[in-house]
């Protein structure tokens, strides 16, 4: 009883002391806004989809500028352009001077006198600045600067924040006929016109830590009028605990218009401890936003864990960096029932944020309690129960449901979910006799940032001699890339009596293609490393079962042509010098090299036929075997000394006379000449 009374008294005293303790108040487990009342930044003048906007992100600059021009003198005021923020951001706009830097280019004149003004509108307040008289004359190309004094004013979420550029007068100096013109340029990397401003742009809050065993999850909440662009186009976002930078890939979650970035801290000492948490957000080069606070956390011994932060809302597929992707494709071309069929096995190994999003989505199939993106919301629950859903582990029933539903949903899932055009990568599966989609969690069943793979197997009939798209660039271009890059490897083979006929790569040089032919089949290898969504390529082939293209029959035909030509040529030089023909046999491996490197069949056939005719021509013009009285030792007869001999008047070789009969005709054993003896 005494212990219980002492415990109650301690708790009572702690409850009284706790609110007055300044340290505990600073480290209270609540969200803390750490930045920023207002931000000094450059707002670039941009044109996007017919709208003129202000944005702090230089990544949105295009390669070509937008322009407004005057080709004649202007004597009355005229608006050049108006740019606006997507929406205002609540806060206090401090008193300051905004500065507009605008690119121009004068042509067809010695110069121009300008009267320009720039007006900043914030809600119902307007502030105007004018081009200084000393800078009113311009020539050639360059920039003009207009300073705009801005007074302190309150900005709300519905306030208009815009910049309007107007010209009061434009007078050309020494114009050259009718070609005088001045252009004002903006929106490109080279002509990055901008206004340097000081205004509320972004709110950064450190979220209440989430403790799971011995792991602590720290979140940074990003709120701004730029939505996802604030995450995608930021130069960097980092978080440190006790001065140590947290590594690894954070998890990003969209919460309405805000973005939540969560890091995992594994350095807790255990028990209750106070930690310093600081963040750094680089809005643009030279504009670094920082903030810090103190949290008190209590961690416990853990025997497992979910493997990382598990968001209650759908995670983002990309934070702007993109995820790695590796693709392996195996092809087999075979003949069947007087036709052709192409067996195709494509494996996509997916890592990073995309793998986490896919795992989380499979763990929420059929979830109607939370908002989901359309691509995940359309998945049917099937046999997945409430106990399986949201369990942080992907059960076998969820894998089976995913694989089964993908048979009819793969086009939408690939296109809207993965940003991949399925037909360009996998072929038209609607033409396939059979196809199956298999998911491999690669040994990790938890919902965590671990790789997984999708394998798509198909068997498709193809028409002989008809052009077929083997592979085409398949990544959909997006402002925020889903894939940081991808590697692709394709291995194809044909049977004895089938051929790809040709493998043609368009003018793109981003892929390496090897095409080889063996008597037992053809081999095609396609490789590409570090490809991006901007890389374009197309590879086509023309499968056929024609005997002239089939590896085995083509090799036999070439062998028959070469062996027949060589036999006939050697027959023709039986009584002649064979050395020229022997030298030309070096053409045999050259023909087979062309056959091996899959030169077009007609080219190989014409080459082998040409080689055979070359041998025959050489055989016709080859010299006799005997020259300068030297007898070919292979023709040298066995001279019997007991017989009289007679020298050949042509080559001088002695020939035995083995008969007394006269007249007699003898064939010279050296040159074959007929010698007639009459006495």
TrEMBL record:
The keyword Membrane applies. It comes from the Archaea. Keywords: Membrane, Transmembrane, Transmembrane helix. The chain crosses the membrane at residues 548-569, 581-599, 605-626. This is TFIIB-type domain-containing protein. It comes from uncultured marine group II euryarchaeote 37F11.
